[in-house]
Amino acid sequence: MLRKIIETIGTRYLVAFLNLILLVLNARALGIHGVGLIGLVLAAVNIVMMCNSVLSGNTIVYFMNRYPSFQVFIPAYLWTISMGALASCMMWVSGLIPEGYGMHVYLLSLLLSLTAANARFLLGTDCIRKFNLTYTLQGGLLFVAVLILYYVFDVKTVDAYICGLYIANVTAWIISLLWVMPLLKRGTWNELPSLTWNMFLYGLWAGVDNLAEQFTSRINYFLLQRFSGVGSVGLFDAGTKVSESVWNISRSISFIVFGKVAQTEDANIQKRITIQLVWLTLLATTIVMLFVLLIPEFVFTSWLFGQEFSGIRKVIICLTPGVIALACNSIFSHFFIGSGRVRISTISSLLGLSVLLLTGSLLIPISGVPGAALSGSAAYLSMLSFSIIQFCRITSTRVGELLPDKTDITSICRRIRNLGSRSGQS
C-alpha cells in the first residue's frame, strides 16, 4: 500500500510540474488575453464535470464493490452524456461560456468525465498503477501536444491549446477504456433502475459535499475583494496556491483510503487503514509545510512573483494550521464516503463553510489578507474536529486509540527503507 501511495503522490507532482510549465508557455505564447480565455473555457468545463460527477465520480467505486460493475458502468456513462449536454446548454444560455466555445465545453467535459469514470473503475479494482497512468497520460500528452503545436508547427493560438486537450483526453479515454472493459462483470438488468436511483442519491450528497468544500476554500476571495480590494485577492491567491500545493499528498493518499474502505465491509479493517493513513498524512504534510515555511520572503518577491507580493510569508504562516488540518480531514472524509456515510462528510464541509463566513466577516475587515488566511484555517480546523468526533462515534474509538501503535510505526519505517533500497538497486 505504501508503494501505491508513493507512486500516486509522484504522479500528482509530476503532472503539477508539467502544468506549471504549460502555464508559463501559455503566458508567453498567448498573452494575458489568451490565458484568460483558456481559463474561462476550463472553468466552464469544470462546472459541467461537477454535474457529471454525480454518477461518474467516486460513486462508481462505492457501488461497483456492491453490484456487478457493468451495471454501474451503464448509468455512469449515460448520465455523463445526457447531463453534460444539459449543463452545457444551461451555461451557454446563461452566457457563462465564451462565444464560439459551447461545443468545445461539452465535448471536453464529456471526454474528461468519461476518462475520470474509467479511472474510478481502475481504482475500484485496485489497479492503482493504471489509475495513475491514466492521469499521467492526460497531463503528459497535453504537454507534448501543446509543445509540438506551439514550437514545431508554430500555431500559437487558443485553438491550438484546445486541440492539445482533445489529443490528450481522447487518447487517455481510449486507453483507459481498453483497460476497464476486461474488468467489467455482467449482471441482471432488473436491478438497474433501483441501482441508478441509489447512485443518484449517493452522488447528489457527494456533489453537495464537493461544492461546499470548494466554496470553503474560495469564498474568502470574494470577502477580501469586498473589504480590501482586488490587489489583496492577488496576494492571498499567491499565498494560497503555494500552501495548497502540499495537498497533492493528501489527495493521493485519500484515493487509496477511499478505494480500500469501499472494497471491504469489515469495520475493523476500515478503521485501522484510516488511522494509519491519517498519521502518515499528518507526518508528510507537516514536514513539507515546514520546508515551505523555511523559504525566505525574497524568494517569492524577487525571484517568483515580484515586489508587489510582499507579505506572502505571513499569508502562508496563517494558512499552515488549516492546510495541515484539511489534509488530515480529507482522509476522514474519504473514510465516510467509502463506507457509505457521505452525509457526514457533507455536513463537515457545510460546517466549514459556515465557520468561514462567520470568521471571515469578522477578521477580514480588521486584518485584511492575514484575516482571510486565519478564517480559512479556522474553517478547516472546525471540519477536522467534527470529523474526528464522528469517526470516534461511528467506530467506537477512544481518543487514545487514534494514536499509532509501535507496530504501525515500525512497519511504515521498514517499508520506506525497503522502497529506498529497491530504488537504489534499480
UniProtKB/TrEMBL annotation:
<feature type="transmembrane region" description="Helical">
    <location>
        <begin position="12"/>
        <end position="31"/>
    </location>
</feature>
<feature type="transmembrane region" description="Helical">
    <location>
        <begin position="277"/>
        <end position="305"/>
    </location>
</feature>
<feature type="transmembrane region" description="Helical">
    <location>
        <begin position="76"/>
        <end position="97"/>
    </location>
</feature>
<dbReference type="InterPro" id="IPR050833">
    <property type="entry name" value="Poly_Biosynth_Transport"/>
</dbReference>
<feature type="transmembrane region" description="Helical">
    <location>
        <begin position="103"/>
        <end position="123"/>
    </location>
</feature>
<keyword id="KW-0472">Membrane</keyword>
<feature type="transmembrane region" description="Helical">
    <location>
        <begin position="372"/>
        <end position="392"/>
    </location>
</feature>
<feature type="transmembrane region" description="Helical">
    <location>
        <begin position="135"/>
        <end position="153"/>
    </location>
</feature>
<feature type="transmembrane region" description="Helical">
    <location>
        <begin position="165"/>
        <end position="184"/>
    </location>
</feature>
<keyword id="KW-1133">Transmembrane helix</keyword>
<feature type="transmembrane region" description="Helical">
    <location>
        <begin position="344"/>
        <end position="366"/>
    </location>
</feature>
<keyword id="KW-1003">Cell membrane</keyword>
<feature type="transmembrane region" description="Helical">
    <location>
        <begin position="37"/>
        <end position="64"/>
    </location>
</feature>
<keyword id="KW-0812">Transmembrane</keyword>
<dbReference type="GO" id="GO:0005886">
    <property type="term" value="C:plasma membrane"/>
</dbReference>
<protein>
    <submittedName>
        <fullName>O-antigen/teichoic acid export membrane protein</fullName>
    </submittedName>
</protein>
<feature type="transmembrane region" description="Helical">
    <location>
        <begin position="311"/>
        <end position="332"/>
    </location>
</feature>
